[in-house]
């Protein structure tokens, strides 16, 4: 409580209040590869960053090129504009673990939230979605005031 963000941007310490996200060496390495001009302030006694820098780091990390992209690698933006990004960092660790368990994703035990988000995110982005069927099913469910568990009960009767 009362701590300021531990990062320096353009040589000056950030004056925003620190949140609960922390600045790890892995994050530092990944953003330095992207040429983002933020660094850890050596005088900071903690590693907590503000929400502004957290969102900045996440947006930079989400700009990776998708595998199997039809783009020929020209001067176009790296992030596909038509593909909405899902911020998996907003989910709780237990939710990420349930997702991992449900889809039987093989990982080593004891992963932290950032590692879980990366693994779940890769799997989530790889799931093919038939938009027409999904929207039709959604509209049907809303019109008929049903949820997934209701449909399972109805189909078994």
From TrEMBL:
InterPro entries: His_deAcase_SAP30/SAP30L, SAP30_C_sf, SAP30_Sin3-bd, SAP30_zn-finger
Main localisation: nucleus
GO molecular function list: DNA binding; transcription coregulator activity; zinc ion binding
GO cellular component, one term: histone deacetylase complex
Keyword ATP-binding: no
Histone deacetylase complex subunit SAP30 Sin3 binding domain segment(s): 91-143
Region (Disordered): 61-81
UniProtKB keywords: DNA-binding, Metal-binding, Nucleus, Repressor, Transcription, Transcription regulation, Zinc, Zinc-finger
GO biological process: regulation of DNA-templated transcription
Domain Histone deacetylase complex subunit SAP30 zinc-finger: 2-71
Subcellular location: Nucleus
Coiled coil: none
UniProt entry tagged with the keyword ATP-binding: no
Pfam families found in the cross-reference section: SAP30_Sin3_bdg, zf-SAP30
Subunit (UniProt): Interacts with components of the histone deacetylase complex SIN3A, HDAC1 and HDAC2. Binds histones and nucleosomes. Interacts with FEZ1.
Homology family: Belongs to the SAP30 family.
Listed name of the protein: Histone deacetylase complex subunit SAP30L
Top-level taxonomy: Eukaryota, Metazoa, Chordata, Craniata, Vertebrata
């Amino acid at each position: 409580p009362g701590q300021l963000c531990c990062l320096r941007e353009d040589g000056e310490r950030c004056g925003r209040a620190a949140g609960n996200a922390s600045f790890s060496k892995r994050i530092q390495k990944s953003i330095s590869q992207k040429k983002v001009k933020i660094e850890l302030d050596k005088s900071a006694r903690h590693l907590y960053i503000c929400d502004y820098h957290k969102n900045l780091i996440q947006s930079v990390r989400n700009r990776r090129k998708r595998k199997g992209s039809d783009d020929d690698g020209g001067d176009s933006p790296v992030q596909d504009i038509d593909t909405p990004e899902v911020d998996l960092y907003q989910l709780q660790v237990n939710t990420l673990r349930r997702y991992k368990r449900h889809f039987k994703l093989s990982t080593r035990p004891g992963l932290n939230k950032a590692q879980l988000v990366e693994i779940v995110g890769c799997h989530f982005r790889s799931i093919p979605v038939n938009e027409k069927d999904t929207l039709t099913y959604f509209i049907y469910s809303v019109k008929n005031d049903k949820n997934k568990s209701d449909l399972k009960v109805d189909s078994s009767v």
